[in-house]
Amino acid sequence: MTPIDTKQGLLKIVKDPILRIDWSGRVLECHCHPSSDPAILELDLYNNRNIKDFEFLGEVYKAVRDCIESQESQSAYFSLGRLGSRTHYEVLVEPNDTDEVLAIIKEITKKRQRENELIEYYDLLQNIYEATSSWTGTDYLDQLTLQLSKALKADYTAICLIDDRQDLLETVSVNFIGGKIENVEWEIEGSPFEEVVTHSYFEIGHGFKNKFPHFELNQYHVFNGFVGIPLYYNELYSKPIGFIFALYERPLASSTHTEKILQIFSTRAAAELQRIEYQKKIEDSENRFKALYNNTPAYFSSTNKSGVVIEVGDYFLEKTGYARKDVIGRRAMHFLTSRSRKDAVKMLPDFLQNGYCKDVALQFIKKNGDIMEVMFSATTIRDEHGRFVKNIMSLNDVTLLRQVERDLRLSEERVIEEANRFQLLFDNSPVGIIIHSNGVIKHVNTETVRLARGNSIYDFVGKQAMSFVHPESKEIAQARVDKIYKTKKAHRNEQKFLCVDGSVIEVEAMGTLIDYQGEESVQIAFYDISDRKEAERHILVRDQELEVLNENLARQNNQLEEFAHIASHNLRAPITNMLSLIKIREADPSEATQAFVWENVGKTVRNLDETIIELNDVVKTSWELDKQRKILHFEEVLEKILNSIVDQIAKADAEFVVNFDMPSIFYPKIYLESILQNLVTNAIKYRRSNEKALIKLRSWEQNGRGYLSIEDNGLGIDLEKHGDKLFGLRKTFHAHQDARGVGLFITRAQIESLGGLISVESKEGKGTKFIVDFGTLKLISTDH
After folding, report:
1. Which CATH architecture group holds 296-397?
2. CA distance 743 to 730
3. Could you tell me whether strands 655-660 and 694-702 are parallel, antiparallel, or unpaired per DSSP bridges?
């Protein structure tokens, strides 16, 4: 055959070689522009040459046959070596007739180089991730600077934070020539920090010392190259906390991938720094609790499961005369009188069953042998999994109050002599005392007037005792009074007290049955514990808030990294394809080429639109803030979903077996509907074609947690092969026309965002079972 005339039509401007090839591989026509690749020209594809004659064109011949067979576009690749270098080519094969094709040969050497660069970039990221994944805290930061030094081939890598005064940079990790060195401080003025923050990414190829002559590092070393990225906490992007940078003694010739690598790991480093800060706050909170434990004027101590003392408060030691070494390691029973030991043994079964006891009258032996009468209270502390941690015990010294009771019983014999003494003790008692008969207040002491913000005892005398009890506490207060009259024994509890001015204080009150002016009466002794209760609530709330915030930060950081990787990967391909089509159109403005280009641009744009919609769904799920919960009934939610997919159910001849042992759940409605919709439609979509779909749904409660399972008899999944990718975005495992690989990704994100888990059991050809763990039902309900 002779070459095609280069002055005809499209061929006169297309520089890529174009071949017309029949089904046997014979070249019917060949166009090579004079400026075409010399390596292709040397192949001499004119004169009825057959591409089968060239061993390296075997893949091209296969693409020709496949194109004629299917009448669809194909592509193939080959390489040629010439003058000591290797050139890579892509062959685009299009059907031209029932038994021949048109093939365009395009050089893709630069494209291959770009792919190799991306592989190198991925390998660098993977190496850093693998080397740092098992570390946390400052150890993680040290590993990160080491691995960044290796990956970026830097001589000096550091992570710096701004100090509280905003004028110094404090390093938290420094790696110099492959080794960790001590942390130092630098002045911000004269450093590259402000340039890094201004530009978000700052790079100097050479002359670093000349640009920042006053920077302290330049006083000891000559550095030429520099790259740096600012650090931000996740919720404070407007305010930098420091920066991460790399220095080079040699000029920096190329910084390929450097910016992306530093951006990725600056986010991870900032998250770890924030986690360290929150951990420090938690430790400070624990220290404050310990200080409260030791310094509160109450007899606090803790025991292990065997009743051996493992902690004791300073106030306990001060008031009992013991040293800490006298108490730690000994059984708590050792410090009781023999009679009280018997009482404690009787009380023990109820304590073990209930996990607490309150106001048990016991006698405690001090270091000097004195007997201290106490009211004993204890509670068992367990962790979030219900495992035993310790028993916290509190002793309230009631020796004085017991003495008062004894004095009152003797008052009939010494009324006049003891009246003044009792009144003095009554008025000067460090606790408030109220005496009432049949619910009417008869007398109060000075401390009561002070605690209740009154002006005199006449603000109380003659009034109903319950009028000073907060409505929330009236039930327990009345129960205490009834119990005192019934058992003739003292009773203690905590309650809210209404003051004369309308304010509310929290008190610990102990009621005792006495004889007052010849009438059976109740004496209430109380003291203000508002500060202590508020401190306890504040510590509990802060600990819970810090724990939840730390978990959310870790999860959001992981989701952010995963989303960034997915977005960059899924958007790159269609954009690259459109750029290639634009180049073809620029090279050939003919109507045929424009039609070909616009057709493929349309396909690419539609694919890009679908990808953006899917990524938007993922973002909406990952960062959804409006998670309003309500009581939902599984049957009602399932019925709504089944009514919306009647056609799918009919086509699949689907049968449903439902067993909702847990009929309802406290959960966001849109999430539960989405979870059931995705899992049920998946079960129908991936059924086996030779039998009808059987779908089993079950909900149940176990150990305070809620569960839901959806089981089918469909195609199943090879978990050994695909298990780690099952919930990934755009991951599909069956050739189904509607499969997009988005539903399971969103389902997992919804469940995990509310503290739950999803797992799967499946065998290929045997069906699939998804199990949703909604988490602790009590916690779910209190989130409302």
Report:
1. 2-Layer Sandwich (3.30)
2. 9
3. parallel
Average pLDDT over residues 425-434: 78
Helices (H) and strands (E) in the chain, counts: 22, 29
> For residues 505 and 499, is the Cβ–Cβ distance under 8 A?
yes
Q: Are 230 and 243 in contact (CB under 8 A)?
A: yes
**pLDDT attached to residue 625:** 42
- Whether the CB-CB separation of 392 and 381 falls below 8 Å is answered with yes
Eight-state DSSP code of residue 710: E
Q: Is 778 helix (H, G, I), strand (E, B) or coil?
A: helix
Q: How far apart are CA 357 and CA 285, in angstroms?
A: 27
Sequence-distant (6+) residues with CB within 8 A of 542 are 281, 285
Q: Which residues contact residue 520 at a Cβ distance below 8 angstroms, ignoring those fewer than 6 apart?
A: 437, 485, 513
> In which element (H, E) is residue 307 found?
none
**Per-residue 3-state assignment (H helix, E strand, C coil) for 278-301:** HHHHHHHHHHHHHHHHHHCCCEEE
pLDDT at 259: 78
Question: Average pLDDT, stretch 47-63?
Answer: 86
> 706 pairs with which residues across the strands?
701, 775
pLDDT in tens, 335-370: 899 898 988 888 888 888 888 888 888 999 998 999
- Dist CA 41 CA 15 (whole Å): 12
Q: Which position has the token pair 């999994």?
A: 385
Number of CB atoms found within 10 A of residue 471's CB = 9
| Sign (positive or negative) of CA dihedral 89, 95, 100, 102 | negative
The CATH number assigned to the domain with range 9-107 reads: 3.30.450.20
Residue 586 has which token pair?
């620029």
Residues 29 and 18: their CA atoms lie apart, in Å, by 8
Per-residue pLDDT band for 499 (boundaries 50, 70, 90) equals: very high
pLDDT at 34: 74
* CA neighbor of 122 nearest in space, from 597, 568, 721: 568
Span 550-597, pLDDT tens digits: 765 666 665 565 555 455 545 555 676 677 778 787 787 887 788 877
Q: Return the SS3 of 551.
A: helix
Render 663-706 in DSSP notation, one character per residue.
Answer: -EEEEEHHHHHHHHHHHHHHHHHT--TTS--EEEEEEEEETTEE
Q: Which of 68, 130, 59 is nearest to 95 (CA)?
A: 68
pLDDT at 723: 47
- Of all residues in the chain, what percent carry a pLDDT higher than 90? 11
User: What was the pLDDT predicted at 569?
Assistant: 47
Q: Given pLDDT bands bounded at 50, 70 and 90, which one contains residue 3?
A: very low
Q: How many CA atoms lie within 13 A of 541 on its CB side?
A: 6
- CA-based max dimension of the chain: 140
Spatial CB neighbours of 676, under 8 Å, sequence gap ≥ 6: 637, 638, 641, 710
pLDDT at 627 over 60: no
pLDDT at 385 over 90: no
**What is the homologous superfamily of the domain 124-275 according to CATH?**
GAF domain (3.30.450.40)
Q: Which amino acid is at 161?
A: L
| pLDDT score of 737 | 46
Q: 3-state SS of the chain: helix, strand, coil percent to 5?
A: 45, 30, 25
Q: Which of 300, 329, 333, 336 is nearest to 317 (CA)?
A: 300
Query: What are the tokens at 170?
Result: 């404090």
DSSP bridge partners of 464 = 440
| Section 463-490 average pLDDT | 87
- Residue in the structure block whose two tokens are 């000891």: 220
CATH of 401-528, one of 3.30.450.20, 3.40.1350.10, 3.40.50.360, 3.30.70.560: 3.30.450.20
